[in-house]
Each structure stands twice: as C-alpha cells, then as structure tokens.
Amino acid sequence: MTNISIVIVCRNEATIIADTLQSLQGVSDDIVVYDNGSTDGTQQIIKQFGVRLHEGTWEGFGKTKNKATAMAKYDWVLSLDADEAVDEELKRSLLSFSPAGEKIVYDITFKSFLGARELKYGEWGGDHHIRLFNKKLIQWNDAPVHEELQLPDEITILKLKGAVLHRTMANIPDYVTKMTNYAMLNAEKYLRQGKKASWFKLRLSPGFTFFHYYVLKLGFLDGNAGYVCAKMTAYYTFLKYARLKELKDKTE
Fold first, then answer.
1. What pTM does this model have?
2. CATH of the domain at 48
C-alpha cells in the first residue's frame, strides 16, 4: 500500500459509496470518511469496508473538507467525493506514487457519467481536477460551495495517470435535485459577495449557457445525454440568478 491518505466527505450516499470504497481497496491503509448527517444508512455501508468513519457537522464544502483532511494520517492526501471511484490505471499510479517534493500537486483526469453513459463532450468532457496534494502546504478555501484548493505561487502541477470515475448523476431526478441544491447554495454565496441578478444574467445567461455547452463545447455529440446536461446547466443558471434576485429583494 501507498503512504497516501484518502479523504471522503459524504452525506446520504448509500446508493454509491460502496462502489467508491470498493475501488479503493488495497490502495491505502488510511481511508477517512467524514459523514455529515446521513439518514439513509450510509454509515452502515461504510463500516463494512473497515475504513475510519467520522461523523460531524456540515460547515460548507470548503471548511468541512479541511476538517476531514486534518484527520488524515499521512501528509499526502487524495481528496474524493462519495460518487468518485478510481479506475485501475489510477489505482496503479497511486500504488507506485513517489513524490518528487512537497511543493507539487497532482492533476487527475475525470470521466463523468449520466447514468451509465460517459459524457465525453459539453460541460463534463475533458474534466480534470487537482486532488492529490500535501496537506502541510495546501488547504481548501472556505467557500460553502464550489470550493477550490489554495495553491501557493511556488507549487508545481503534475499530471497523474489514470482517471476518477465521476458517477455524479444516477438518473435525471437525481440530477435535478443536485443542480437545484447547488443553485440555492450559489445564490446565497453570491448574495454574501454582493453580486446582483441583472436583467441580462436572469433572462439571457441560461440561453447562452445552453448554447455554450451544447454547441460550442460539442455536447450534441453525446446524444440525448448531452442535450439533457446542457439543458440542466441552463436550468441551474436560471435558478441561481432567480433565487439571488429573490434574496436580494428581501434585503432591500
């Protein structure tokens, strides 16, 4: 096994957490799962895999991920969400991992799915994220949603072979629920940042969003799945700004 801690933050992921943990078997002797209030039996599934389960409160994505990362035994941390498994090539890369120095982070290819369909174009095509880092130097920012790693100027970004299999949407109802939740959270974030829902953003941004991902980013090549994803992102954009306007009106 490798000297990498794997840290997962989750809530109500009973339908997918077993697949994620199964893909990680034999990779690390330190897998930390931080559950923030599951009510669907997620904890019982986690306990079957012999990983370290911690239960705590939700403080937004950034702060909660930092709290979970602090529990890792090793300095090098692979941060995953509950719906993100690793493929065999990434598993081999992790097992043979030998960092050249502390001031390096590793970018990983993501393969995203709508149900069983891999999305190769549009918003999800060509997706990649930095997820392997040294916790002594790197932390998440405090953003409640769409959190990012804070990278010092001297950090070098390298590519790690293999892919994370991101099964974020089991079906369309699941997709609608997740996008609605993200839209509400982002609206609140924008309100705190002093942003406004202008006429342009509220009425034209959703259409431009659909055109960008379905046409310019070739989402149509993913067939019906590509159309659904582009429409859902446009819907998310509308909800985000509509909710922001609603919140803004209440404060005026």
1. 0.91
2. 3.90.550.10
